[in-house]
Amino acid sequence: MNGGGRIARVLQCHGVQFLFTLCGGHISPVLKGAKDLGIRVVDVRHEATAVFAADAVARITGVPGVAAVTAGPGVTNTITAVKNAQLAQSPVVLLGGAAATMLQGRGALQDIDQLALFKPHVKWARAVKRVRDLAPVIRDAFHVAQTDVPGPVFVECPVDLLYDQAIIREWYASAAPTGGGLGNRVMRAYLDLHARRLFAGPDEIDPAAKDVATPSPDSRAVARAARRIANAERPLLIVGSQALVEARHAASTAAAIERIGMPVYLSGMARGLMGPAHPLHRRHQRRKALREADVVVLAGVPSDFRLDYGRHVRKQACLVAANRSRTDLNRNRRPDVGVIADAGLFLRELARALGTDSAGRWDAWSRLLVDRDAERETEIGDMASAGGEFVNPVSLLRSIDAQLPENSIIVADGGDFVGTASYIVKPRKPLCWLDPGVFGTLGCGAGFALGASLCRPDHETWAVFGDGSVGYSLAEFDTFVRHGIPVIAVVGNDGSWAQIAREQVKMLDDDVGTVLARSDYHKVAAALGGHGVLLTGSDKIDVGLDDARQSSLEGRPVLINAWLDKTDFREGSLSM
Length: 576
Ligand SMILES: Cc1ncc(C[n+]2csc(CCOP(=O)(O)OP(=O)(O)O)c2C)c(N)n1
Prior knowledge:
Layout: H1 3-13, E1 18-22, H2 28-36, E2 40-43, H3 47-61, E3 65-69, H4 73-76, H5 79-87, E4 92-98, H6 114-118, E5 124-127, H7 131-146, E6 153-158, H8 165-175, H9 182-199, H10 219-230, E7 235-239, H11 250-260, E8 264-266, H12 286-292, E9 295-299, E10 318-323, H13 326-330, E11 337-340, H14 343-354, H15 363-384, H16 393-403, E12 408-413, H17 416-424, E13 433-434, H18 445-455, E14 460-466, H19 470-473, H20 476-483, E15 488-493, H21 498-508, H22 521-527, E16 531-535, H23 541-553, E17 558-563
Parallel strand pairs: 1-2, 1-3, 3-4, 4-6, 5-6, 7-8, 7-9, 9-10, 10-11, 12-13, 12-14, 14-15, 15-17, 16-17
Thiamine diphosphate binds near residues 415, 440, 466, 496 and 499.
């Protein structure tokens, strides 16, 4: 088994089904090894897409997603997506090619100090130096990626570790100087020794996955939290992505939240956890509810900018927080009851500690929030009926929500239009909503959609884009077509990078750098073999959506180019 085969064997034993890549000679044996073992190799058009797709797989399945990219520029192209995975705490294993061990630091093609580049952006990075170390290092990589606070890891795999020994030895022999002088003989001996060291060691490998422990909460802290909650009059629960790290427990975590019985807001990967219309689940006016709450429970949610650095929660309120990360737990505001633990497990233990069904305990408080949600829904309804020259974005998103089947995944990549979508389009189930997370990276859409659709081929995958953000993803329509990925992309085309323009025009009275053309993005999808739908009026929404879904059903990716009514930034925008 060559090095590529060894790596593939470890991936296989860790339940990896897909390897995302953009090829390069430095990594060819990894792709070949993966293919030979039945791992589907999915080749994309930009390395960032490969990592975004791996990130999506990790989040949806709980099994680390894997990408392999070539040395140098292949590796550097992934940095933004890797950073995004780090901040989203997503366990991605990135395999990077590298120059031959003998040539590193000597001006070889695509040879740079990759570890120095990656160390600040990953949880763990290693460069492998011998074939025998490939399997153990990659097993460690999987383990580290999933342990405690999950995150991306990087393993550098030099090209001379990956090919068959005979090829590498031949290569070393041909690189050796020929002549008979002492210097040449010493160099030949040195190269021979180096090659022997590279391949020394047993042929057998141990590819098995190591156990990953779930950080469990201290039972006294759980009891303390339960006491504070039991005495609360207006408790509020905020659940974030970390509660879904162990994807397999999503249903029991949802059941625990139901038993706990307090009103809940969901964010990040936790969206959809309670289904589209659970009576405890609130969607609007979170800030107002937080100001009124007397006990706030943050399950896997840091007090970062999204909670105004903790200031959204009143000083007098009791803050209970569970987080895998001690830093995140105490960031900006120390909780009154802090628990280092998996947030999902914490909720399940909390439900047990609270004991008897707490349903009904906070009825008046709950009703207040339900009424507020209903008021906001009425306002949104009014926005949807506002007439205009082109497509009303609220109306379009409401129609998408109305058509969305139970088996569907929504990917969000953009600014205002996507922000509006996050209030209107309701994921039907857990792990069916993907957004970049705290790094706010535009350009994640195609990769996320690719990973999601591959993991859930029986689901409709909807990717909601702005006309700005879709620019990063357009070339991947080629990938969707080649690999039969029937994504439905919806582009809110307002001829603008609107989320930026809105503030910029208000503050600087200038839209410089924020204006786009109303381009024919649907034609790009069609030119690459997909289907394109142009939507220019609200009256055509249902026909356009039917057309798009039909195309997807037939296995053909589709892009809906929806010309939105332009926002006059001087008067405020439609987005919420
Ligand atoms: C990689 C990256 N570049 C730039 C930004 C800054 N940014 C945030 S929102 C936004 C505008 C998005 O425009 P568009 O996708 O057209 O959506 P719209 O707001 O128009 O609905 C920009 C440029 C970013 N978040 N990420």
